[in-house]
Design brief:
single chain; 432 residues; alpha/beta; FAD/NAD(P)-binding domain; 6-stranded mixed β-sheet; 12 helices; binds flavin-adenine dinucleotide
Length: 432
């Protein structure tokens, strides 16, 4: 049976634990969730309110949830596949999100430089690429859209693409600039360990309930309680478990594998291609990377399984990863896989995030599909701006975003989403 070990976290090395929250505590602001959103919110709150006491609370280890378990794309130019770009409002909405995503990448670029966070940051952008000719029109549409929006992008075809990637699996790609590739666990760890002193971090402190407490809020945890006039909830896929946004947001379980470093012979087989990141034009197609430390990452499963992926299921998903690797790099078999893991993303029916003050002093931020590295980093910063009564153009952008659509109640939703994903999985099969 495969053990669920996030390769990025294993390779980042162990950081010291933060003590769990115990007893009766108070804070000026409590942030629930220590992923990119919570980390960004904590840093910005500390900057805006230098004397405030800020608590950053995570149910497991700060920075080791989806923020460490992703594929490491700081996405700047999301696939325009789902956007209603033929309408003025669809185009305006894509532009707004695109501005926010670019701002998220810029924020992370600046922080990694300023704080000296070594996370294998590369300003390489990403390539949307397809194997199946049925997806070529979709890619041409990506390229035209990027051009219309003045995003730096170009089509790469045939031999050029093969030598760029070191595999002949893909035949057409759209390379776009602005985004970055990185080692996500190292980034999250670097951001957590450089927070200002007025932020108290708590690992292994799951919040069980959020209740009103006079003018503020009371959080109930296994080992204690904390009260705060303001609370920011940044728990991503776990909003519904806190009975928040359960008719707007839902989780998807993803799995990924990372190989050992390529051998000298394997390097020769791929023509010593420089590192790259490939995204699929199909929402359930494979995400692939050739990393700076010469490993290959594959993420080619996604499913609606709110309880997560157990070891038995992970075992069968790893076979799907091995098949995906063998299609692209026939010399790489299952035993080249060094680490495999699962993680959850948070999604809404219309792919829009939550960004709001749902009740006085209770702020909710999350739900970015698979773009939360850059998006979580900017939205987390902006939710802190919002909580502090700031005003700036990016905050106006975030507040102007369309809200997530309603979903039907369970079990109707469960049935519908499984049917829809089965159809999407069939359509994406050649790209998995
Ligand atoms: C396999 C995979 C690949 C992905 N690839 C990419 C990619 O390449 N690029 C990209 O941009 N995005 C990607 N994503 C999505 C990305 O990881 C998320 O969008 C991002 O991590 C969201 O950040 P966040 O801080 O909002 O949430 P998270 O990182 O999920 O953090 C939420 C935190 O809240 C904590 N928490 C939950 N419930 C409670 C509770 N009750 N009490 C206390 N704490 C709680 C969790 O332990 C967790 O640490 C991927 C995700 C997965 C799983």
């Amino acid at each position: 049976m495969v053990e669920d070990i996030c390769g990025w976290t294993a390779l980042a090395g162990h950081r010291a634990d933060f003590a769990p929250l115990r007893g009766t505590q108070t804070a000026d602001v409590a942030i629930i969730g220590g992923g990119f959103t919570g980390l960004a919110a904590a840093r910005q709150l500390a900057a805006l309110r230098p004397s405030a006491r800020i608590a950053l609370i995570d149910g497991k280890r700060i920075g080791e949830g989806a923020s460490a378990r992703n594929s490491g794309f700081a996405v700047a130019n999301e696939s325009p596949g789902h956007a209603q770009l033929h309408t003025d409002s669809g185009l305006a909405s894509y532009r707004t999100m695109n501005r926010l995503d670019h701002a998220g990448v810029a924020e992370l670029r600046q922080l990694t430089g300023q704080l000296g966070i070594d996370c294998q940051w590369e300003d390489t952008g990403s390539i949307h690429a397809a194997h199946d000719p049925a997806n070529f029109d979709r890619l041409r549409h990506h390229a035209e859209t990027f051009q219309r929006l003045r995003i730096d992008a170009r089509l790469i075809e045939g031999k050029d693409l093969h030598s760029r990637l070191g595999t002949s699996f893909y035949s057409l790609g759209v390379e776009s600039r602005g985004g970055a590739l990185l080692q996500p666990a190292k980034l999250a760890q670097g951001l957590a360990t450089t927070l200002p002193d007025q932020v108290t971090c708590y690992d292994n402190s799951p919040v069980r309930r959020i209740d009103r407490d006079g003018a503020g809020w009371l959080l109930e945890l296994a080992g204690g309680t904390i009260t705060a006039p303001q609370v920011i909830v940044a728990v991503n896929a776990f909003f519904p478990r806190l009975a928040l946004k359960s008719l707007r947001l839902f989780p998807l379980a993803l799995t990924a594998s990372l190989t050992r470093p390529l051998t000298a012979e394997e390097e020769a087989q791929i023509g010593h291609a420089p590192s790259w990141g490939v995204l699929s034009p199909q929402s359930l197609g494979a995400t692939m990377r050739l990393t700076q430390d010469r490993r290959i990452l594959i993420r080619n499963t996604a499913e609606y399984r709110p309880s997560g992926i157990d070891s038995r299921r992970l075992d069968s998903r790893v076979q799907v990863h091995a098949d995906g690797l063998a299609k692209r790099f026939p010399f790489l078999q299952r035993d080249a896989i060094a680490y495999s893991w699962s993680g959850s993303i948070c999604i809404s029916r219309n792919a829009k995030p939550v960004f709001e003050q749902s009740q006085p002093g209770l702020f909710l931020c999350g739900g970015y599909n698979a773009s939360g590295v850059s998006r979580g980093s900017i939205m987390g910063k902006l939710i802190a701006d919002y909580a502090c009564g700031q005003d700036n153009p990016l905050l106006s952008d975030a507040l102007s975003l369309i809200k997530p659509n309603l979903i039907p109640p369970r079990p109707f939703f469960d049935f519908g989403v499984k049917l829809r994903m089965a159809a999407e999985r069939r359509a994406a099969r050649p790209e998995r």
